[in-house]
Amino acid sequence: MASRGIIYEYEDGGRYCGEWENDAAHGHGACTGPDGNGLFQGVWERGHQVSGVFTWPSGQRYMGKWRQGVREGAGKETKKDGTEYCGEFTRDSRGPFGVLRQPNGVVFRGTWKEGVQHGLGTELYIDGGMYRGEYLNGMRHGHGTRSSSNYERSTTVETVSVNSSLDDSIENLASTLEDPSSVASTVTSGGSASDPTSNAQIYEGEWKDDRRHGYGVLKIVGHHTYYGQWEENMRSGYGVMIYGEEKRKEEGQWQRGKLVQKLKRRKLQLKSKQLEAKVNQAHMNALQAAEAARSKADLAEGRANTASAKSRLAVRAAQQALKDAETAEAVEKFYRNAPKVQGERAVISFQKSLVRK
């Protein structure tokens, strides 16, 4: 059957308008979900989306590739609050590689699983600091390094307005997201330009559920370095604090960031020897954890670079999707007076996704 225009209306209120062939959407067309909720505009092939733009009632928007009715391949997702993800999608979820920009200026580059950060990656923060290391179920977990500056930095993140026209979106997408991994940072206050490392913090070690937890080393440049155990982001357990150039030490057992049992190495009591052994072991474990964290950080940089490359491919896919959506919009206008067909079944398998929030 030759391609023709059609309006297909579903009993649940959904509606397709566009090109049609062999009893299925084929070519350019637009489809709304039940009661008009959600809108897809783009290219169809044998009843399934191939490339285009889907807009949710909440303002969330996806521009990119599709397969069998779900997001699959390279694409870009934006939310009304300014959050944007640019990278790969698998079975309608983010991953395995992509770049996420959040409204607060935080930028993640790395690996994903089932829609959340998982594996290895880097995270750049508004203060100019960075985390490099392992993630589990969307949180920093495993081994990693976290650096932070004494500066307060502002990060400019360009976004594409979900309310702009398709023409404007194409132009903005090309100009602002050519390199999704780039972040423009400027020093706004504090610190000294001649001494950018003054009071900078560097942590290398273990993490659990997004917090420093386990063994690790925290160095505050120009002040002190702590080697030992951590719990819930605080010094807790056995460890050693070494202050500045004078190498003054505080050793012993810590609780919630405070030294509660101080080691006095000159004493020969059995209790002091036991405490000394625990402190020495914690010191060694912290050094080993720091070394493992640096190794994971190097691997994370590699994953981040791959994510940046994938995000650039996603930009091109999003540009093409926007063009396909623009053509579909024109086709829909042309076929608005086409014959209407009533039907119970959904010709497209995407009907459930159309009402997703």
In short:
The protein is of the alpha+beta class. It has helices at 166-176, 270-334, 351-354; strands at residues 4-10, 15-21, 24-32, 39-45, 48-55, 61-67, 70-78, 84-90, 93-101, 107-113, 116-124, 130-136, 139-148, 152-156, 184-189, 201-208, 211-220, 224-231, 234-243, 248-255, 258-262, 340-343.
The end-to-end distance, rounded to whole angstroms, is 36 Å
Number of H- or I-type helical stretches: 3
Q: What is the β-strand count?
A: 22
Report the principal-axis shape. Answer: rod-shaped
Radius of gyration: 27 Å
Structural class, please? alpha+beta
SSE sequence, one letter per element: EEEEEEEEEEEEEEHEEEEEEEHEH
Helicity, in percent?
10-25%
Structure, described:
This protein has helices at residues 166-176, 270-334, 351-354; strands at residues 4-10, 15-21, 24-32, 39-45, 48-55, 61-67, 70-78, 84-90, 93-101, 107-113, 116-124, 130-136, 139-148, 152-156, 184-189, 201-208, 211-220, 224-231, 234-243, 248-255, 258-262, 340-343. 43% of the residues are buried. The strands form two sheets. The protein has a 20-stranded mixed sheet. Strands 14-15 form a two-stranded antiparallel ribbon. Helix 1 packs antiparallel against helix 2. A hairpin with a 5-residue loop joins strand 11 (116-124) and strand 12. It is built from three helices and 22 strands. With 357 residues, the protein is α+β, with helices and mostly antiparallel strands. Helix content is 22%, strand content 47%. The longest helix has 65 residues, at 270-334. The model is unreliable at 151-197 and 344-357 (pLDDT under 50). Belongs to the junctophilin family. It holds the Pfam family MORN. It comes from Geodia barretti (Barrett's horny sponge). Residues 178-199 are annotated as: Disordered.
